[in-house]
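Appendix C reproduces, verbatim, an entry submitted by the partner laboratory led by Prof. M.T., so that reviewers can inspect both the input and the predicted structure.
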Amino acid sequence: AHRLPAIGRSVEGFSQRGIWTRQGVEFLVIEPRHGTASPEDFDGEFDDKPGMMLIPPGEKRVLLYRIRIC
């Protein structure tokens, strides 16, 4: 019998998760995200897009994404 691997993940510092695939392929993508495409009605400055992470000069952010396959 074919057994699928167990997959574990931990995410820190990201505000959103994206899950997507494409028709005709055999994979599923689970990715951390910080921000998305502009909403249809958004007509503002890039820096004002919903979900943007602005990091001032000299500062840093630590974002972690770990995947474990067993």
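Residues 25 and 31 are 17 Å apart (CA to CA). Additional entries are available on request from the coordinating office.
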